[in-house]
TrEMBL record:
Stored InterPro entries: 6-blade_b-propeller_TolB-like (IPR011042), SGL (IPR013658), SMP-30/CGR1_Lactonase (IPR051262)
UniProt KW Nucleotidyltransferase keyword: no
Source organism of this protein record: Cymbomonas tetramitiformis
Protein name: SMP-30/Gluconolactonase/LRE-like region domain-containing protein
Keywords: Hydrolase
Residue ranges occupied by any SMP-30/Gluconolactonase/LRE-like region domain in the UniProt entry: 90-385
GO MF assignments: hydrolase activity
Length: 413
């Protein structure tokens, strides 16, 4: 910790370059205050730093009354509930359900450091270890790989049996997983004969003919140098981090490179009407020019005349997110059309049409990715992974006219 601050007679814990409001000092909680938590040591790229583990108390909505109004339109509470903890680094949350049966939904997520895939059932509140070694990391590389596990996951909606396509950090490929048989079938591992870096996150298009995915270098991080630095770029066989797409059925022979100019492509999501594709850049550390800690950036791609997402229509740089742990990582769209994205210190709500930050929830913690529970659930939630935890926020069910509006919107970006 860099120091201590005093505000209104209550100590504030200092995190990085900023002070938390009414936080904790040492390991004590300020009862009756806005924040309640404990100090713990970080796992992952910022290992060794102290951070506040938020304990389900009030998390601040940043941006004034307008931001609070927007946030309250989407959520019924501002209190992130910590559902589970005790993991190393949680990632890749996705809701899975039996075909044509949203009520059977369960959440699967990964631990990229421990190389495990978990299954959580919200109704029963039951957690099960679904698979160990899902990242496909070769045994000889486990001695140095910091994150050998699986990462982003997407459900294949048109499958007759529950099936997902997921990113395997360890194997450096995207693969298909039959959830019933637990059989894994590789889909793509190379571009023009050269191995990917470590596919990070992915999304299927509307017809599920193509999978779009990001391929940064985070799966090549070393245990001994567990931070984002220039050294890891030298480990890339491609020589760049890319945005790709591949045919779901054909694999390596039909991998296409869409953009190789991004420094740290990470999260990826389609707008609700599939008219635009959004890709985030996860900027951490201080060694990558143009992509340093605190930068928050999302790129918006639109279709060309052939219907392919190859034209970047705009880049959204949010300058007022402020410094802090975390980055622009995983994200999902709300039916309203607003983007809910992980960003430094918590989650951001973004209007991609206007390219503006609408609201930010400061959770004093790193959020890695997001999953939206089906709104057919009795009490749907937004689930968030990151640090060693699984959080959730209760969602307000959207009105039917709002959903219909989204289906017609976002055609001009």
């Amino acid at each position: 910790m860099e120091g201590r601050c005093l505000e209104g007679g209550a100590w504030k814990a200092v995190l990085g370059r900023g002070c938390l409001r009414k936080g904790v000092l040492g390991r004590g909680c300020l009862e009756g205050g806005a924040w309640k938590g404990v100090l713990a040591r970080s796992q992952g790229p910022n290992i060794g730093l102290l951070h506040l583990v938020q304990q389900g108390c009030f998390a601040e909505v940043v941006g004034g009354e307008a931001a609070e109004t927007i946030f309250d339109e989407l959520f019924t509470s501002r209190n992130p509930e910590k559902v589970l903890d005790g993991f190393a680094w949680t990632e890749g949350p996705a809701f899975i359900h039996e075909p044509e049966n949203d009520e059977s939904s369960r959440l699967i997520f990964t631990d990229t450091i421990e190389d495990r895939i978990y299954e959580y059932t919200p109704i029963e509140k039951e957690l099960q270890l679904y698979m160990e070694g899902g990242g496909g990391c070769p045994d000889m590389e486990r001695v140095w790989r910091a994150e050998p596990g699986a990462n982003g996951i997407a459900m294949k909606r048109t499958s007759t049996v529950p099936t997902v396509i997921f990113c395997q950090h360890g194997a450096r490929q995207i693969s298909m997983l039959d959830l019933a048989t637990r059989q894994i079938r590789p889909l793509a591992s190379r571009f023009n004969g050269t191995r990917f870096n470590s596919p990070n996150d992915l999304v299927l298009d509307e017809d599920e003919k193509f999978v779009y995915f990001t391929d940064p270098i985070y799966g090549l991080l070393e245990k001994a140098r567990f931070y984002d630095g220039a050294y890891v770029d030298l480990k890339s066989e491609l020589g760049f981090s890319g945005l790709f797409r591949a045919r779901v059925t054909d694999g390596d022979a039909h991998v296409e490179l869409l953009d190789q100019s991004l420094k740290r492509p990470n999260g990826i999501a389609f707008t609700p009407d599939f008219s635009a594709l959004v890709v985030s850049e996860c900027c951490q550390g201080e060694e990558i020019p143009g992509c340093v800690q605190g930068d928050a950036r999302w790129h918006v791609y639109r279709k060309d005349a052939s219907g392919n997402f190859v034209t970047r229509s705009k880049t959204i740089d949010i300058d007022d997110v402020g410094p802090g742990l975390g980055c622009a990582d995983g994200m999902k769209f709300h039916p309203s059309g607003w983007l809910i994205a992980s960003c430094p210190q918590g989650i951001c709500i973004i209007d991609i049409d206007k390219g503006t930050l609408l609201a930010r929830l400061d959770m004093a913690s790193r959020v890695s990715n997001i999953a939206v529970e089906p709104f057919s659930a009795e009490k749907p939630h937004l689930y968030m992974t990151g640090e060693g935890h699984l959080w959730r926020l209760p969602l307000r069910k959207p009105k039917r006219d709002a959903i219909g509006h989204v289906a017609r919107g976002h055609t001009e970006l």
